[in-house]
Structure formats: C-alpha cells, structure tokens
C-alpha cells in the first residue's frame, strides 16, 4: 500500500509531513487500548545544514486529557539534514480512547548555532467505528 502524507506544516523552509494509520492488530479494544502508527518526513528546503535536537509532542485523548512528551531527537536519532535533504521515521501512539490528536514541534540547530522550532502539523487519531 502506498502511503500518502495527509498532514503538512511548513516553518521557515522546513516541511513536516505526517501519514497516520490506525493499527487494529496492535490495539486491544476490549481492554480499552487503541494504537496508531505515524510516518513522518522532514524536508529541509533551506540553504542551511541543520540538526534535529529535540521533539515536543502534545497528545490529546478523546476525554481531552493532554500528555506532553519532550525528548532528544526522534526514535533515538538526531539526524543532520543538509540543504535539500529529508529524514523519514516511523513511530506509534497508544491511547485509552478510540480518538484523539497529536501536534507539536521539532527544535533544530543550524550550523551557525541558531535554533528554531519547526511545527509538526495537528493530526487526528481516529479508530474506525466497529460494528457492535
């Protein structure tokens, strides 16, 4: 299956694209656990080389409960993106409700030492309705 990026944010020449899919095989709906996988592509369309330093996620469940996740890099990496380069990674998100959302930002450091935040677009997490 060809994955289509469904959500995009552009900040100062850095494009963040997200494709999200619900994974019923990783979910335990009877136990109140839903699981999504998301594929992120970060594209550097600037003339600057930059390194992804950290991530900041705001994850909201279907009850409006917010979890904030901050950490170094992405999936254990702090990739360096040269001009015109991109970086892809895949990760997942469990929730205790069948819907929610994610959004956030990455902090990058340019070779001149300046830092900036690139927005991660808001994207919904929604499990398909199940026949009852």
Automatic annotation (TrEMBL):
Every ApaG domain range: 8-132
UniProt-listed InterPro entries: ApaG-like, ApaG_domain, ApaG_sf
Any coiled-coil regions, as ranges: none
UniProt-listed Pfam families: DUF525
PROSITE patterns linked to this entry: APAG
Superkingdom of the organism of origin: Bacteria
PANTHER family: OS05G0170800 PROTEIN
Record protein name field: Co2+/Mg2+ efflux protein ApaG
UniProt source species: Novosphingobium beihaiensis
Encoding gene (name): apaG
